[in-house]
Design goal:
The protein is mostly beta strands and 569 residues long. 6% of the residues lie in helices and 56% in strands. The chain is globular and about 145 Å long.
Length: 569
């Protein structure tokens, strides 16, 4: 009963409050009408739709039409538009002639002339003539001064003809070299009762040669590319020797799959007349040898790996009878792309040591020196090479080889095995001795372009000889180094500097051994371009004025300067 009373009171109170609030709203609010009232009636929804007529009869309209053409004359003519072309830099004119003239102390004269034809898509042609001579006095080890009377001349004509898919090239040349055997000991350096083993004081070398070559250049590597070549050289000295050398060579290469098959072969025949026998001085004999070389190879490049597998077969017939088979293997792996490559290989060769090659290495050998072939049984090599940056490169390498009958130069002044000579003998000409050796070579080469103006190239080698019979590796250094730098100061002026270092070398004097001092040859030079036709240059060698010997008894020049001009037209 009590709950009903409370509920009734609450309802009554709420009704009173609502009524009161409504009264307050109606009394205190104003209503403003902005537009007149417009009643709107919604469209009623219709159920009916239009009727659909389904007629079974069909009607196809038929009509014809035509277009009556009539020409319309206009007075507009379109202009021709030329084809677009890539505009490049204009070709600079080429000077066909270059003449260099220079002179210096030690009565040095130098001249060089070159001619090359203008640009041609079908052929190249050139002429080259050079002269060099020097005759300043050089001081020997006993204080006496002598002149070398050294002179060189060269004349050559060369050229190439370019075919659609090949090239023919050739060269004809003549080379003359003359000099004196001025080294110690000479006639003025010994007692009157000494007998000269080789009683001549001057030497002349003449070389006449020609070579021709034909090579194909098919762009399709699956076609057989091949080449053939012919070389001939006639050599004479001014005393005893005449040598003729004919070399016929051929090569072929074709691609199959990812690899290349190739074959190289050559026949080399040389005949030397005027060979001197040390056992019977004055008796001459001939040396005739034919060497056949056959070198098949297979090379493969897959990703970062390059591989070459081959054999080098050498068959010598005639006075030098040899048959040798050598491996020809090389592999390199690009460990870091564009930065570092590892390489290794194994090969060997038979060096025939004909007289022309020997006198080119040491001009002061006696005329008719006969040197046995050297058999490089194997050479194992390896190392790492790569790039330090976009304008620098390096190479670190090691070589180990085993050679039978390696020759070493020594002066023939310890007497002669000849019963005709009962008294003491002497000579300032070189003979050779032989030994079976092992040679370890460690090398480093670096080429750096520090800036756009400065370039640096350097190489260093360490040599370790292991000998069987000889006490030392005569005339062979353990250390070699050369460094060369070029600096472009301006576009017209550049400088060069270099240093050549040759380590100490042992020399045999019969039962005694002496050592030739190390060579430190520092040189500098400069070129100044006066205009597009004239360039002045200068070069100074042996700045320390070191007195050094390349060959025992034959000193080299001290400080020497060469100044000249080059003209192109």
């Amino acid at each position: 009963m009590f709950k009903k009373i409370i509920f009734t009171v609450a309802i009554a109170s709420l009704a009173c409050s609502v009524s009161y609030a409504q009264e307050e709203r109606d009394l205190n609010k104003e209503v403003k009408v902005k537009t007149a009232y417009q009643p709107k009636i919604n469209k009623s929804k219709r159920i009916g739709e239009l009727p659909v007529v389904q007629d079974t009869a069909t009607f196809t309209p038929s009509f014809s039409y035509f277009i009556q053409t009539k020409p319309l004359a206009v007075g507009f003519s379109p202009a021709l538009i030329p084809a677009a072309r890539i505009v490049g830099e204009p070709l600079q004119s080429i000077n066909s002639h270059a003449l260099t003239l220079a002179g210096g102390n030690y009565s040095t004269l130098f001249g060089d002339y070159r001619f090359n034809n203008q640009r041609s898509k079908i052929s190249d042609f050139g002429i080259h003539i050079r002269h060099y001579s020097t005759n300043g006095k050089l001081e020997l080890e006993n204080g006496r001064k002598a002149k070398p009377d050294w002179k060189e001349q060269l004349a050559e004509v060369y050229g190439s003809v370019y075919l659609d898919e090949g090239k023919i090239s050739g060269k004809v040349y003549y080379e003359h070299k003359g000099y004196d055997f001025f080294g110690f000991p000479a006639e003025d350096d010994v007692a009157a009762n000494y007998v000269d083993l080789f009683p001549y004081t001057e030497q002349v070398q003449n070389r006449f040669g020609l070579n021709a070559e034909f090579l194909t250049a098919f762009k399709d590597e699956e076609k057989l590319n091949f080449g053939v070549g012919l070389q001939y050289e006639h050599f004479t000295d001014d005393i005893y020797v005449t040598e003729n050398d004919v070399l016929i060579s051929a090569e072929a290469k074709i691609r199959r799959g990812d690899g290349f098959w190739s074959l190289k072969s050559s026949f080399d025949y040389f005949a030397t007349d005027g060979i001197t026998s040390m056992e019977e001085l004055g008796r001459m004999f001939e040396r005739n040898t034919l060497v056949w070389n056959l070198n098949p190879q297979y090379s493969l490049k897959t990703g970062n790996l390059n591989l070459k597998l081959g054999l080098n077969t050498v068959l010598a017939m005639g006075d030098d009878s040899e048959a040798k088979l050598y491996p020809d293997i090389a592999v390199d792996f690009e460990a870091i792309e564009g930065i570092m490559t590892l390489f290794a290989g194994l090969d060997g060769d038979l060096k025939m040591n004909n007289y022309n090659d020997i006198i080119a290495e040491n001009p002061y050998v006696y005329s008719g020196l006969n040197v046995r072939p050297s058999n490089q049984k194997y050479k194992l090599f390896g190392g790492v090479k790569g790039s330090l940056s976009s304008n620098s490169s390096f190479k670190l390498s090691a070589e180990y080889s085993s050679v039978d009958d390696q020759y070493f130069f020594m002066q023939r002044n310890a007497g002669a095995a000849n019963a005709d000579y009962f008294g003491p003998t002497y000579s300032n000409k070189f003979d050779v001795v032989y030994d079976d050796i092992s040679l370890l070579r460690l090398g480093a080469e670096v080429s750096v372009g520090w800036t756009d103006k400065l370039d640096l190239n350097s190489a260093v080698w360490f040599n370790k000889y292991t000998l069987d019979k000889q006490a030392e590796a005569w005339h062979k250094p353990e250390f070699e180094m050369n460094v060369n730098a070029t600096y472009a100061f301006t576009s017209d002026l550049d400088f060069q500097a270099g240093v050549n270092i040759l380590g100490e070398r042992p020399v045999s004097l019969g039962s005694k051994v002496k050592t030739l001092d190390a060579v430190y040859d520092l040189n500098i030079g400069a070129n100044y371009r006066l205009n597009k036709h004239f360039t002045a240059f200068g070069k100074a060698n042996n700045l320390f004025a070191d007195k050094y010997y390349q060959w025992d008894g034959y000193p080299s020049q001290g400080f020497n300067l060469l100044l000249g001009v080059k003209v192109v037209f």
